[in-house]
Specification:
Blueprint (H helix, E strand, L loop, with lengths): L6 H11 L7 H17 L5 H21 L7 H11 L7 E5 L5 E5 H10 L1 H17 L1
Antiparallel strand pairs: 1-2
Helix pairs in contact: 1-3, 2-3
């Protein structure tokens, strides 16, 4: 259901914001900042602000569709691009044996935290491994 807006308040918002078809990156950035401020209002957004928000989002989407088009790429090209943007680090992984017989791979940097959280399960498994080692 469409809400009834106060034309005077809406006209004031339009006069303050001066929305129009976006032709430049500066204009795009300016309107994105206005949208972000409106988003910060959350539930306190008035009907007039919601109308302005919808208008600005439409203008921004129209500009971005025209100027920020993604070119088609193969999965291999996408993976290469992701690897360039997010260089991988080499992780040393440890296998942790749990008392229920399951194993978990844990990165070295997370090992202490994992062991602290699961100490009871892991200590029991370590004792059983020790028995096997010495009983043989």
């Amino acid at each position: 259901m469409a809400s009834i807006i106060n034309k005077e308040l809406y006209a004031k918002l339009l006069a303050e914001t001066l929305p129009r078809v976006i032709h430049t990156e500066d204009e795009h950035k300016r309107l994105v900042k206005v949208v972000e401020k409106l988003m910060d209002l959350g539930e306190e957004l008035t009907d007039e602000q919601a109308e302005l928000f919808d208008l600005l989002v439409t203008l921004i989407e129209q500009y971005e569709d025209k100027h920020y088009q993604l070119k088609t790429a193969t999965p291999h090209e996408i993976l290469n691009e992701l690897m360039l943007v997010n260089p991988t680090r080499e992780y040393k992984m440890f296998t942790v044996y749990l008392k229920n017989g399951e194993t978990v791979q844990v990165a070295l940097e997370d090992l202490k935290e994992y062991l602290d959280k699961n100490r009871e399960q892991i200590q029991i498994q370590q004792k059983e491994m020790g028995k096997r080692r010495y009983d043989a």
